[in-house]
TrEMBL record:
It holds the Pfam family ABC_membrane. It comes from Rhodospirillum rubrum (strain ATCC 11170 / ATH 1.1.1 / DSM 467 / LMG 4362 / NCIMB 8255 / S1). This is ABC transporter component. Its EC number is 3.6.3.27. GO terms for molecular function: ABC-type transporter activity; ATP binding; ATP hydrolysis activity; ATPase-coupled lipid transmembrane transporter activity. The chain crosses the membrane at residues 21-47, 53-72, 127-148, 242-265, 271-293. It is found in: Cell membrane. InterPro entries: AAA+_ATPase, ABC1_TM_dom, ABC1_TM_sf, ABC_transporter-like_ATP-bd, ABC_transporter-like_CS, P-loop_NTPase, Type_1_exporter. It is a multi-pass membrane protein. It is an enzyme of class 3 (hydrolase).
């Protein structure tokens, strides 16, 4: 856990973390020492030695003072570390994420990142502010007391050494169970809430298929029943376990008193010493129970810590020490490329092709044949397993990230728009572009049409993820970004869904414009795009089975002819379906 905390805080704060831990340990031990003075004070008082009691009391005051200083130091250092977490971890996480390869950003990883950025950082601050101190003092303070008791009378020391872990484990057992019960109640509550939301969202489907409220909605009813059962089990599971925790202290204490009384009766222990030592033993149980109760929380926090530390430990793809300059801007080459997302499951095999500057290449093939993977390798989402991907005349592994990205303008299907104005979303393509350049890019991509219908025109916020725009409109904004960026290579993942005529027209018009000034590599689905390409890469099962122009392939490749006719039929069917609806 300490190692994870050090990773999360970063090397700059490693010294502060060590200092905090040192003060924490000092505080816990000094607290035990201060309490331990109680024994000689009591012994002196019970034997009528007022001077001795005063001297011991002075010693106790000194220990209390030192414990206070240590407490203050560890609390202040703990809070400043918690503050470091709150103020810098998000920033460091942002910097770290920016260094990760694009292939890292799967939805599962993004989910983990989002959880770590919120719950994870909150948990880390809680560790410093609330969890670590009671657990460390709850273990070290009683341990110090046990050492003092053992030094005074080893037999009582032995008895304490036996029952202290017993109290700890009994409390830990009961708090773990209670924690689990509470988690089950929370989980059942969350599931029931999710089912209610699902029930509300599914209303159109449920009603369309005659599943009205009379018929009931089984998943929701099951979730409510599970929630009722979870709540019902709280009392029956919690109460007996609380009892066990409390009883363990009583049993342990009675055992200790019995041992002490036997020793006194046997004449081997002084009764005054026994009373004094029992006073110390009485101070052991509280911190132990507290430590046991908090240890569950600390364990939970540890899971979050581990996830957050694992995130920081994720490595980016190796960057060249001396980046190479580009030799042929705008050119793409694949040379015997082999690649798989998982070892032993190749997705691309022996893929070689070349795309010359200012030409248009279409990648076609069945679903899953590896078209998008080719685009991802050009953007260096991942490194290849074999062969070489060259952009601008250089292997992408020899280029630094900025140079590589400077060559590329991606227009992907899942366009992400920021919750900002339409203009700001296009300007992402080139932040220093003039207003005229933004307008020109927008005109070419057909965004001006969208502007006309938006209430605040260019200044209309497009909503989270571009929610105010349709899928086709979002892609037009993405194309405008690419036009504005004016990179030598445009990578376009054409929408698979049928576009309405307006979107279709604009995409085609922009493609023509882009082709005149950039290298265009398109994952093509529309027959018109395929026909317009200077070169078609025909993919099947991760291999390029043929390369050529549409006419050439149609004339010589029966498989291509079949593919083409299927695609054409599908397009025709889609158009007809639309006309029929109209
Ligand atoms: N992130 C990933 N992890 C593991 N396997 C993946 C991943 N992305 C794609 N694949 C697999 O790699 C193969 C090629 O996928 P790719 O997306 O490149 O195909 P595609 O030709 O673009 O398909 P489509 O036309 O349906 O988009 C598929 O079998 C797919 O399941």
């Amino acid at each position: 856990m300490i190692r994870d905390l050090a990773t999360i805080l970063g090397p700059r704060h490693a010294g502060a973390l060590r200092l905090y831990l040192a003060w924490l340990v000092a505080y816990a031990v000094l607290e035990g020492v201060a309490i331990a003075f109680l024994a000689p004070v009591l012994a002196a008082l019970l034997t009528g030695d007022g001077t001795g009691a005063s001297v011991w009391l002075l010693g106790m005051a000194g220990a209390v003072l030192m414990a206070c200083v240590a407490r203050y130091q560890q609390a202040m250092k703990g809070f400043s570390l918690a503050l470091v977490v709150l103020t810098t971890v998000h920033e460091r996480l942002g910097d770290h994420v920016a260094s990760l390869p694009l292939g890292w950003f799967s939805s599962e990883k993004i989910g983990r990142l989002s959880q770590s950025a919120t719950d994870g950082t909150t948990m880390v601050t809680n560790v410093f502010a609330h969890f670590l101190t009671p657990v460390v003092t709850g273990v070290l303070t009683p341990a110090t007391l046990a050492v003092v008791i053992a030094l005074t009378d080893w037999r009582l020391g032995l008895a304490v050494a036996v029952w202290a872990p017993f109290i700890y484990w009994a409390h830990r057992w009961s708090s773990t169970w209670i924690g689990r019960t509470e988690e089950a109640v929370d989980a059942a509550g969350a599931t029931a809430s999710a089912r209610v939301v699902e029930f509300a969202r599914a209303q159109p489907v449920l009603r369309a298929f005659g599943r009205t409220t009379d018929a009931g909605y089984q998943p929701l009813e099951d979730a409510i029943e599970a929630q009722r059962r979870a709540n019902g089990s709280v009392l029956s599971t919690t109460f007996p376990r609380l009892l066990v925790g409390g009883l363990s202290v009583q049993v342990a204490f009675v055992t200790l008193i019995s041992v002490g009384v036997l020793l006194v009766l046997g004449g081997t222990l002084d009764a005054v010493a026994l009373v004094a030592l029992l006073a110390l033993a009485a101070r052991l149980a509280g911190p132990l129970a507290e430590a046991a109760a908090r240890s569950g929380l600390l364990r939970m926090a540890n899971n979050d810590l581990r996830r957050l530390a694992a995130l920081f430990a994720e490595k980016g793809l190796p960057e060249p020490i001396q980046p190479a300059p580009l030799t042929e801007p705008g050119r793409i080459e694949f040379d015997q490329v082999a690649f798989g997302y998982r070892p032993g499951a190749p997705v691309l095999r022996d893929v070689s092709f070349r795309v010359d500057p200012r030409t248009m290449t279409a990648i076609i093939g069945d679903s899953g044949s590896g078209k998008t993977t080719i685009i991802r390798l050009i953007m260096r989402f991942f490194d290849v397993d074999g062969g070489s991907v060259r952009v601008g005349g250089r292997d992408v592994r020899e280029l630094d990230g900025t140079t590589l990205m400077g060559q590329l303008s991606p227009v992907m299907q899942d366009v992400y728009l920021f919750n900002d104005t339409l203009e700001a979303n296009i300007r992402v393509g080139r932040p220093d572009a003039t207003a005229e350049e933004v307008r020109e890019a927008a005109r070419l991509a057909g965004v001006e049409d969208i502007v006309a219908r938006l209430p605040e025109g260019w200044n209309t916020p497009v909503g989270e993820g571009g929610a105010l725009l349709s899928g086709g409109e979002r892609q037009r904004v993405s194309v405008a970004r690419a036009v504005l960026k004016n990179a030598p290579i445009v990578l376009l993942d054409e929408a698979t869904a049928a576009l309405d005529p307006a979107n279709e027209r604009f995409i085609e018009q922009t493609m023509r414009g882009l082709k005149a000034r950039s290298t265009l590599l398109v994952v093509a689905h529309r027959p018109r795009t395929i026909v317009a390409a200077d070169q078609i890469l025909f993919l099947r099962g991760g291999r390029i089975i043929d390369v050529g122009t549409h006419d050439g392939l149609l004339a010589r490749n029966a498989e291509y002819a079949r593919f083409w006719h299927d695609r054409h039929r599908a397009q025709g069917w889609r158009l007809m379906a639309k006309e029929e609806i109209a």
